[in-house]
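Re: the request from the purification team.
They wanted to know what the chain is likely to look like in 3D before they choose a buffer screen. I agreed to run a prediction and write the result into the notebook, where they can find it.
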Amino acid sequence: MKKLTLLACSLFAFAAVAQAKEVAAPVTSSKEVVAEPVIIEEVVVAPVVENPWGFINLRAGWDFWSEYGDYNGRHSNNNYHPYDLSKKTKDFGGELAIEAYKSWDYFDLGLGVAYQHHMKRKTNDNVSGAEYKSVPLYVVGRYDINYWDWAATPYIKANVGYSFNFDSKSLNTPSGDYGTKVDDGLYWAAGVGVQYEDFNVDVLYGTNYAKTKVDGGDKFDNDYERVTLSVGYRFNIW
């Protein structure tokens, strides 16, 4: 009896172990490899911008104040009637100019030429005239006052050259009109301005020196002084 009981227990244990082996699944250890995305950063290399060699500046100006040299004299054919020229002016005066510059860090130096239409002289006691026009050829210098990288660059400017004067008007008097001739002379101007990108605005005080000869009369200083407001546009030269 004991042998049968022992045999039955052995068979039961064997069957239980076999069933356990069939139910238990083998444990497999595996790691899933996930490829991480590779981020490629695009490096943009900014082009190297060189400073221009120089520039050409086209400029148009308006004389908002001006005066001529005044004169009080007598014509040889009219000794009893003096002609008194007023130095005050009226109507429009202005100029068109082209200037070519060589540039350094803060300084620009160049040459310029302008066509200048001077204002008319006001009538004084029915006497007027003796106006003229000018084409000055000049050396021009600009000094930039921008040490802090402002958006707009202030500058000081000066012109020095020679004025070719022409188209001298007659002297108009109550006793008649008298022809005139005008001599050439020196020219200069100086002032301040501001440059913003390719645009510039400046205010210059300048003088064209001239002497006018009246037919049958005297020669007198007939300088033209004015203050000119100008607007310009710059074209860089590389």
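For the purification team: Residues 54-237 form a domain with the Porin fold (CATH 2.40.160.20).
Please add any questions underneath this entry.
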